[in-house]
Design goal:
With about 160 residues, the chain is mostly beta strands. It has 1 helix and 8 strands, in the order ββββαββββ. About 0% of the residues lie in helices and about 20% in strands.
């Protein structure tokens, strides 16, 4: 892909290949590969036409599975213990960074697999079910023991989840 990454209030832009376009949303990369749940038998991860994918109709907890969110990049594959974004403007690195920005007063907007749309608290990102093995009670959640002082300075005053 040719183009440039975005920031908190700047859309990312793809200039090639193909027609240029700009947007400020990115998708949960885990949903668009068969790795969303590698523990399932292959027949449930592959469509009848043999193209890799997942059968979203069989997934549970769709209201907690993010599909599309405010982002500085086209997509990302969040994991629980990737480094935290060090600055307020999101990051263009792997993991939660592209989605972790203070775009809407300590929140980002997100579309979920049940097709609902809602505000997501910045620290709440670590409680969502990005892929089926994602630990929603990981070390960056209240359930996992995270304290406000554990977060980067710019996130310390945000609501804990």
């Amino acid at each position: 892909m040719e183009g440039r990454w975005g920031r908190t209030f700047e859309a990312w832009e793809m200039t090639g290949p193909g027609r240029p376009f700009r947007t400020s949303y990115g998708f949960n990369g885990w949903l668009f590969c068969c790795d969303f749940d590698a523990s399932l038998p292959a027949r449930t991860r592959w469509g009848s036409d043999g193209i890799p994918g997942i059968r979203v109709s069989t997934l549970r907890g769709k209201a907690n599975i993010p599909v599309l969110l405010d982002s500085t990049m086209p997509y990302s594959h969040p994991r629980e213990l990737f480094p935290l974004p060090p600055r307020r403007g999101g990051s263009n690195g792997p993991g939660m960074g592209p989605f972790c920005m203070d775009r809407h007063s300590e929140h980002v907007n997100g579309l979920f697999l049940d097709w609902s749309v809602r505000k997501i608290g910045i620290k709440e990102l670590w409680t969502l079910k990005w892929h089926l093995q994602f630990d929603t009670a990981n070390a960056w959640t209240k359930a996992g023991g995270a304290l406000p002082e554990d977060w980067p300075h710019w996130m310390r005053g945000f609501k804990d989840y």
